[in-house]
From TrEMBL, chains A, B:
<dbReference type="InterPro" id="IPR030854">
    <property type="entry name" value="RNase_J_bac"/>
</dbReference>
<feature type="binding site">
    <location>
        <position position="444"/>
    </location>
    <ligand>
        <name>Ca(2+)</name>
    </ligand>
</feature>
<keyword id="KW-0540">Nuclease</keyword>
<dbReference type="InterPro" id="IPR041636">
    <property type="entry name" value="RNase_J_C"/>
</dbReference>
<dbReference type="InterPro" id="IPR055132">
    <property type="entry name" value="RNase_J_b_CASP"/>
</dbReference>
<feature type="binding site">
    <location>
        <position position="163"/>
    </location>
    <ligand>
        <name>Zn(2+) 1</name>
    </ligand>
</feature>
<feature type="binding site">
    <location>
        <position position="48"/>
    </location>
    <ligand>
        <name>Ca(2+)</name>
    </ligand>
</feature>
<keyword id="KW-0694">RNA-binding</keyword>
<dbReference type="Pfam" id="PF00753">
    <property type="entry name" value="Lactamase_B"/>
</dbReference>
<dbReference type="GO" id="GO:0003723">
    <property type="term" value="F:RNA binding"/>
</dbReference>
<feature type="binding site">
    <location>
        <position position="75"/>
    </location>
    <ligand>
        <name>Zn(2+) 1</name>
    </ligand>
</feature>
<dbReference type="Pfam" id="PF17770">
    <property type="entry name" value="RNase_J_C"/>
</dbReference>
<feature type="binding site">
    <location>
        <position position="391"/>
    </location>
    <ligand>
        <name>Zn(2+) 1</name>
    </ligand>
</feature>
<keyword id="KW-0255">Endonuclease</keyword>
<protein>
    <recommendedName>
        <fullName>Ribonuclease J</fullName>
        <ecNumber>3.1.-.-</ecNumber>
    </recommendedName>
</protein>
<dbReference type="InterPro" id="IPR036866">
    <property type="entry name" value="RibonucZ/Hydroxyglut_hydro"/>
</dbReference>
<keyword id="KW-0378">Hydrolase</keyword>
Length: 556, 556
């Protein structure tokens, strides 16, 4: 009885009201389990930032209770923050084979491969983590070996879908394990946490295998051309289908792009790929084969700077020159924010005369996430007491809530959560009982969290209008200006063409210095402020720009 | 006979291989006509740049031949560069009433209203410009009073569609003048220049009036709510339909957003709107009416920073507090690049409990541009000898070319042009005969063209990793360091939390200074370079970042 009275606490530290950095903390008594541990890409206003990871301040509070990290799949937004978390808490990590295979590449880069405690679980298996029993349940997604995770506790079962779709004809032959979800649902699921990404899309997501037919007809149509296909590196089922088409039409396959090579090697090594001998060739060997006997699989489906496809398009790829006899297939939709970059790549490829198949043309891409009908199937199958839509912006969570209501759920049992909120669950009740620190930690180079609002504000200021430095040396003895003021600018105007303006700035600065050093005393308190204000005001009146003004005064 | 032997030269200075800054130069003998004169919005990498205008270096070469600027419609990408051009060449401008009405607001801001020579033409009218006769032909677009322009010359007729769609049931009652285009086609059009924006969209664009039905049903559904509709300020037909729905349901209409107020005032003044008395109220008066008797029409349909809807969403609008009883309709699709901004606004509105209708939901928006079927109709009707797809990125121009081929055009009579290319046309021939200077001129504040590649490169560098300034004073007499080196950083790290790092940088700089000032001589040539390299190298090793290193050395 005592045990049953314990409550489960659920604390998302990422993945809600945002796309990315998924991390959810589950607590029961003295045990803490972390589900996923992802990164996010920086927003446009996070200048110079490489990646964003969740604020894990709260984990320090429960450090000695953490029994492990369980992973749903190997996408960056679910595993990308693991190196940063393991550096602070080297807890065991549990994932499927491919998930850990991809994670290993990442840990190697961070020098953590030896120390990390990685444990492989197959879908269908479970692991005990304190009072939690974590059960891996097979799902379908745009990466192989994805799982939902059921956390069994004495206070009830929690089901987290991870990212999923329902694919009745998947490439690996195994549909998401609806039977197990249904079984758990019949026994009673306390709370369901389900993927909201496509909550505003009606109907069903097409099967990954529908792409195979598309490739087949495109390969037939482009029989006399070299074919270049760009897609997400981690979508090995997509790559498998490209290889299938290549084999059918007697083409060799070469791979370009670091992440594509890495993931494919891991997938081959772990036995996830079915590639006939002598199909794969090295990118250096493509010259040895006729063009119409080649397929090149590349990264760059999002128009990423320096990705393989972008380098091909802008003629800076060392191995591949784009030609009018090339057929380029971009087998991906642009993620919001990448539309322009993809468009630029398409335009460049077309300018070289290549044929380009992209976006919604010809069904060259399907989503990895469930649409509305599938979401409702999961809710109806799981029949949870409580429902928490996860993995989406606020608008997606709201839509997912609407879908749950359509299945007959009680509105007061649905919780639209936010990161840092603490949801306390028991058989009889669910409520938000508090908040913990949460947010974005910015990673810039080796710095984790040392770029904050002040630094970003300065970068934005510098980016908009550049900097004007007013530097002078004051003679302490005579209280007069010993050198300068000199004016140095960066990112403001092209100085050679604006010498008059710079001379005028110097005059303004000289005027201020003169006034502040009258009578052999120096009005230190106002010297810097006045240089800043008067130079700034002068420049705004002349240019309607507001560069950062930085007065530097040395004493000798 | 002599006259006929003269050739027409066509030189686009903007609008090809890009969206925006449309400007095309037409030359015949001693006469030059400029068609449209627009601006573009800066790309993401043009940090701090306000707008982009075409490089008009070439116009200086033909300055004394320019007979005027003819305008197709009042959108920014067709009129936005006029103030900058008129400052250099105060040539007459010809446009329809609404186009000039909107232009006047712009000229006023630039202090050019008095000096500008504006001439109003109605669709159906013509004006003689040297040997050119410019004929205005009514079209449909997402702004009222749009025209195609036929340029009649002794060497043949050129037809430029401007931006258009074929709307058989437009709000102003007048379909695009297909009859006149057909008539010109029968007589013989030498070259057609046609809008390529939607060249990759099959079928037809829906009629603007289809939106009326959507508003009608949304207003009925939201009968107990305040309704806020965001749309493009210049789409006065859309605004008219919002007003129609408001009138039908007995609501007052208030307007928020500077450009919306400006355009609407111009449209009302010129008689383009049909608004019953006592329908429009001042935004300050909204408190006097019940919420369910109000409609607010706002700017911000693209999620623009500081636009009315964005201010409403983020609770910084002075007059409007968003509430759960609000229905917000975003009657526009996000322009590529604006998806995230719009999504953020939608999320914020939803968090306040408002209902939000947006994007492709419920048909709240239709395009102002023709789709493939309409494009083919124009080509088949105009039956031009030569065809030049305009107004689009390369991929759009290519698609438009394909459509022209489908209508039976000879591939060698279709020209995919680029800005700066000179196309020479006669009854018997068409060919690219050369290039002229062309490109992007960046406007930042009052500066036109003073922000170039070096400045942008510096801004990008500053934006990514900030700046480290190493400043010291050298005593000329003793050849020693009299003050400093001091280290100042901006946009690099938050200094208070990185004092150790900054101290270490100082040590590195001191070391360099010591080595370069040995034996009472100063190795000037290497001092700056070594500070730059050694401080830069040290920081990269410690942080994997590359801030701009700026050594400043003063002499006393």
């Amino acid at each position: 009885m005592l045990k049953k009275s314990k409550k489960i606490r659920v604390i998302p530290l990422g993945g809600l009201n945002e796309i990315g950095k998924n991390l959810t903390v589950f607590e029961y008594g003295n045990d803490v389990v972390i589900l996923d541990c992802g990164m996010a890409f920086p927003d446009d206003d996070m200048l110079g930032v490489d990646i964003v990871i969740p604020d894990i301040t709260y984990l320090h509070k429960v450090a000695n209770k953490i029994r492990g990290i369980v992973l749903t799949h190997g996408h960056e937004d679910h595993i990308g923050a693991i190196p940063y978390v393991l550096k602070e808490f080297n807890v065991p990590v549990y994932g499927t084979r491919l998930t850990l295979g991809i994670l290993k590449n990442k840990l190697k880069e961070h020098g953590l491969l030896r120390s990390a405690k990685l444990n492989t679980l197959e879908a269908g298996e479970s692991v005990r983590l304190g009072e939690f029993q974590a059960e891996f349940i097979h799902t379908n997604h745009s990466i192989a070996d994805a799982v939902a995770i059921a956390l069994h506790t004495p206070a009830g079962v929690l089901l987290h879908t991870g990212d999923f779709k329902i694919d009745p004809t998947p490439i690996d032959g195994d549909m998401i394990d609806l039977a197990r979800i249904g079984e758990l649902g019949k026994k009673g699921i306390l709370a369901l946490f389900s993927d909201s990404t496509n909550a505003d899309r009606p109907g069903y997501t097409m099967s990954e295998s529908s792409i195979g037919k598309t490739f087949d007809s495109l390969f037939e149509r482009g029989a006399d051309k070299r074919i270049i296909v760009a897609t997400f590196a981690s979508n090995i089922h997509r790559v498998q289908q490209i290889i299938n088409a290549a084999v059918k039409y007697g083409r060799k396959v070469a791979v370009s792009g670091r992440s594509m090579v890495n993931v494919l090697n891991a997938a081959i090594e772990l036995g996830y790929m079915n590639i006939p001998k002598n199909t794969l060739i090295d990118i250096d060997e493509i010259g040895r084969y006729p063009k119409d006997k080649l397929v090149v699989v590349t990264t760059g489906s999002q128009g990423e700077e320096m990705s393989a496809l972008t380098r091909i398009a802008f003629s800076i790829h060392k191995k591949i020159n784009i030609e009018p006899t090339d057929l380029v297939i971009i087998s991906a939709n642009p993620i919001p924010g990448n539309e322009k970059a993809v468009s630029n790549v398409v335009n460049e490829l077309l300018k070289h005369g290549a044929e380009v198949i992209h976006e919604r043309q010809d069904n060259v891409h399907v989503s990895g996430h469930a649409c509305q009908q599938e979401m409702k199937i999961i809710i109806s199958l799981a029949r949870p007491k409580y429902f928490i839509p996860v993995h989406g912006e606020y608008r997606h969570l709201c839509k997912h809530r609407e879908l749950a209501l359509q299945t007959g759920m009680d509105p007061k049992n649905i919780f639209i959560m936010d990161i840092g909120k603490v949801l306390e669950l028991s058989q009889d009740s669910a409520k938000i009982v508090g908040t913990v620190p949460s947010g974005k930690v910015l990673v810039d180079g080796l710095g984790v969290g040392d770029v904050g609002n002040i630094v970003l504000r300065d970068r934005k200021h510098l980016a908009e209008d550049g900097i004007i430095i007013v530097v002078l040396t004051i003679d302490r003895a005579s209280c007069s200006c010993a050198a300068g003021p000199d004016i140095i600018s960066r990112g403001f105007v092209y100085v050679r063409e604006s010498e008059d303006l710079m001379d005028a700035v110097k005059d303004v600065a000289c005027g201020v210095v003169e006034q502040c050093t009258r009578g052999n005393t120096i009005d230190w308190s106002t010297l810097k402020t006045r240089i800043k204000n008067e130079v700034g005001g002068f420049l705004f009146s002349k240019t309607k720009r507001r560069p950062m003004i930085l007065p530097i005064i040395m004493e000798v």
